[in-house]
Design goal:
By secondary structure, the protein is an alpha/beta fold. It folds into 2 domains: about 240 residues, Aldolase class I (TIM Barrel, Alpha-Beta Barrel), CATH 3.20.20; about 70 residues. It is built from 15 helices and 9 strands. The protein is globular and about 60 Å long. The protein starts with a helix and ends with a helix. The structure holds flavin mononucleotide.
Length: about 325
């Protein structure tokens, strides 16, 4: 039984956190382990070409994870089967719980160079890439995350093809590449993929992805569209506590979580990532209490994590003594 089947057996469906570059790194994933853990995580996507080049050091940080983040799926991108095979040959030593191939990203420069969702137009190359990954993955499950098409919806042909590749899991982001994130996800088409799966490859697990903003919504969509689980992306940015099902997180808890995040950042990424890259988390964790705008502003103006920590700690002390 692979990791996906095990989660479904235990919990009936999978709530996964989406890979999101510059957001869902090891520090943020560890924070979610504390405040509301999904059933599985994905790493940010890592370039197989970068990994196989002299610049390996520049992409390696994307592979970093701690055991508490398991189950964790490493996500790769690239368009050279040989680089996938050589990358996977190395990363199996990290014992990830799965290896995912990104055929969904729609960022312009990635598409221009024929990567990610541009591969939807190249099924033969995709077949070679999947084979290359499988040839080195051993018993680690292999999956694909993709969209409904490149410049038009081609659900039938594209997913028929993918389902014939014996994948353990497919994540279906319910938009085409051309649409980026601009229109609502098309869950009817995601539902069609589930029906195809039932015929072509009943053992392939299907996750639906697009616009899920709460676990109640996730449950509704699982039952309405028949997916085995959902993947949540931007929903976590709006509410980092989403996977806990809790509402009304108070000021004290929000501040303590931000403090812990900054401490973890300092211990993990200092010298690798700048404090600037952490400002998005300030906005994510602290909201909805009196004086928050002014506090946020002060943290936005900071340039060093130590100064930011001083400000947060000072604020926590002040709020503790004020009546
Ligand atoms: C800032 C950002 C970074 C992303 N990075 C990745 C990535 O590294 N790999 C990937 O497969 N998708 C990436 N995505 C796409 C998300 O995983 C997800 O498919 C998309 O946000 C749709 O889900 P949502 O509507 O729940 O946000 C990214 C999305 C955003 C907004």
């Amino acid at each position: 039984m692979n990791v996906y089947e095990r989660i479904i057996k235990e919990k009936s469906c999978i709530y996964a956190l989406a890979p999101m570059e510059d957001i869902t790194d090891s520090v943020f994933r560890q924070m979610l382990c504390d405040i509301g853990k999904p059933d599985m995580f994905f790493t940010e996507f890592m370039s197989t070409d970068g990994y196989m080049s002299k610049g390996r050091e520049n992409v390696m940080h994307r592979l970093e994870f701690r055991d508490i983040e398991r189950p964790i799926i490493v996500q790769l991108w690239g368009n050279t089967p040989e680089n996938y095979a050589n990358t996977v040959k190395n990363i199996v030593n990290l014992k990830p719980d799965g290896i995912d191939i990104n055929i969904g990203c729609s960022v312009k420069n990635v598409l221009r160079s024929g990567h990610c969702s541009a591969l939807i137009k190249e099924p033969e190359l995709v077949k070679d890439i999947i084979e290359a990954v499988k040839s080195k993955a051993g018993d680690i499950p292999v999956s694909v995350k993709t969209r409904l098409g490149y410049d038009s919806i081609i659900t039938d042909s594209w997913f028929n093809f993918l389902l014939e590749q014996n994948l353990d899991l497919i994540t279906v982001h319910g938009r085409i590449s051309k649409d980026g994130y601009n229109i609502p996800a098309n869950w009817d088409e995601i539902g069609k993929v589930v029906k195809l799966r039932d015929v072509v490859s009943p053992t392939t697990v299907i996750l639906g992805n697009g616009d899920i903003s709460s676990l109640d919504m996730a449950d509704e969509y699982v039952s309405k569209y028949g997916v085995d689980g959902v993947m949540v992306g931007r929903g976590i940015v709006n509410n980092p506590w989403l996977f806990s099902r809790r509402g009304d997180i108070d000021e004290k808890e929000r501040l303590e979580v931000l403090k812990k995040h900054l401490e973890l950042f300092k211990g993990t990424w200092e010298g690798v990532k700048s404090y600037n890259s952490q400002k998005k988390y300030v906005k994510m964790y602290i909201s909805g209490f009196e004086g928050v705008s002014e506090l946020r502003q002060r943290l936005m103006e900071c340039e060093e994590v130590d100064r930011a920590l001083e400000i947060v700690e000072g604020y926590i002390e002040e709020s503790a003594i004020s009546p």
